[in-house]
Amino acid sequence: MTEVTTKIGAFNAAKRAVPVTFTGGGVIHKRDVNAVLDDKGKYDVAGTKVRVAEVARGVAAKIETGVITNPAAPEPEAGAA
């Protein structure tokens, strides 16, 4: 399976999520991952890292099968020189 590394951004309390950049197999994929909160509603850093690792396994499988790829380069605008 494709090895994927992750970079977790700052917790967004309004979204209750963290932005994550997944990189592997020449693909860079960015998405939010729901954060883990403790029983008092406080952000759980360790639990969120576990959740991101679980999501990363799914992202790796999707990169491996070609479901997740880098976006195509934008087409130049007509008339642009």
Quick tags:
3 strands; flat
Describe the structure.
This protein is of the alpha+beta class and 81 residues long. The chain has one domain. It is 26% helix and 25% strand. The chain has one helix and three strands; from the N terminus they run E-E-E-H. It has one helix at 45-65; strands at 5-8, 17-24, 27-34. The protein has a three-stranded antiparallel sheet with strand order 1-2-3, with helices on one face. The chain is flat. The relative contact order is 0.22. The mean pLDDT is 94.
Summed up:
The chain is α+β, with helices and mostly antiparallel strands and 81 residues long. The chain has one helix and three strands. The termini are far apart.
Number of helices: 1
Order of helices and strands: EEEH
Give the total of beta strands. Answer: 3
**What percent strand?**
15-25%
The stretches of 5 or more residues where confidence is low (pLDDT under 50) are none
- Any idea how many domains? 1
Shape descriptor reads flat
The oligomeric state is single chain
Return the structural class. alpha+beta
Share of residues in helices: 25-40%
With strands numbered from the N-terminus, the spatial order across the biggest sheet is 1-2-3
Question: How far apart lie the N and C ends?
Answer: 43 Å
Radius of gyration: 16 Å
Largest sheet: 3 strands, antiparallel
Question: Mean of residue pLDDT?
Answer: 94
Spell out the blueprint of helices and strands:
Elements: E1 5-8, E2 17-24, E3 27-34, H1 45-65
Antiparallel strand pairs: 1-2, 2-3
